[in-house]
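Reading group handout, session on sequence-to-structure problems. Before we discuss, look at one worked example. The prompt was deliberately terse, the way you'd type it at a terminal:

> structure Mercuric resistance operon regulatory protein

The input record follows.
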Amino acid sequence: MGSIPAKLTIGAFAKAAGVNVETIRFYQRKGLLSEPPKPYGAIRRYGEEDLARLRFIKSAQGLGFSLAEIGELLRLEDGTQCDEAKSLAESKLREVRNKRRTLQKIEGVLSALVSACRNRPAKITCPLIASLQEGAARNRIGRSAETSDRFHRPPSGG
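And the output record:
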């Protein structure tokens, strides 16, 4: 990336980082970015170090780290605490793998429901809507994603 001017206003800083001004203020409130001093009667200015820190935050967010986790990583930013950084990354990796497994289960349930909708005879209640109304989709995530018989028979009583 090219060099930025020595000091930027918050608007120029936000533009250089590809975020909006409110994002910068939010990170400041969360303690992830420091607010530069404001010389008497002047405007706060941000430099290359601030931009590098903001890019670090955005990179970590891109990997799924929460703001609290990013705060921990920023504490380790000097690079001398690799074991602790590795431990945080391993924890995040476990979390990502667990989420992936859950998403795969959800995919299976949704796929079965879409298939049931596709294959339903006319005048039969929509299997997807019926499933959601009964809370069955949530309950089925832990079980097989096979479509049950109730999606292929007319509702009772009518």
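Points for discussion. First: The chain is about 60% helix and 0% strand. Second: Helices lie at 10-17, 21-29, 48-62, 67-75, 82-118, 127-134, 136-140.
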